[in-house]
Automatic annotation (TrEMBL):
<dbReference type="GO" id="GO:0009295">
    <property type="term" value="C:nucleoid"/>
</dbReference>
<protein>
    <recommendedName>
        <fullName>Single-stranded DNA-binding protein</fullName>
    </recommendedName>
</protein>
<keyword id="KW-0238">DNA-binding</keyword>
<dbReference type="GO" id="GO:0006260">
    <property type="term" value="P:DNA replication"/>
</dbReference>
<dbReference type="Pfam" id="PF00436">
    <property type="entry name" value="SSB"/>
</dbReference>
<dbReference type="InterPro" id="IPR011344">
    <property type="entry name" value="ssDNA-bd"/>
</dbReference>
<dbReference type="InterPro" id="IPR012340">
    <property type="entry name" value="NA-bd_OB-fold"/>
</dbReference>
<dbReference type="GO" id="GO:0003697">
    <property type="term" value="F:single-stranded DNA binding"/>
</dbReference>
<comment type="subunit">
    <text>Homotetramer.</text>
</comment>
<dbReference type="InterPro" id="IPR000424">
    <property type="entry name" value="Primosome_PriB/ssb"/>
</dbReference>
Amino acid sequence: MKNLSYIILDGNLTADPEEKSISGGKSLAHFTVAVNHSQYSQDAKDKDDVSFFEVDAWEKLGENCVEYLKKGSKVTVMGNLKQNRWKTPDGESRSKVTVTATTVRFDGMRGKKEEKAA
């Protein structure tokens, strides 16, 4: 049986997507999505909470993200969770979970005509 690590995020970009070129000629867009969610508690300051998720979008999907998205854009991201592991120069183990996007829906663009920068 194959394991599954699928996630759906609905939120806003915290900054413009960054375009990166990877060895081998592949392109990558990297961005962070802020997801607001409410927690039900009696303490008012704990009611609203935000989680931040780092997202990688490859090839044409990533190129479209770079072209059409900007800081604050509302998106729905569907993709797989991936844990990256590495060692620091001091030999300490580190890890970070990112989302590899399979679909990015540009929610803020519905019914609007976006102008492209020349």
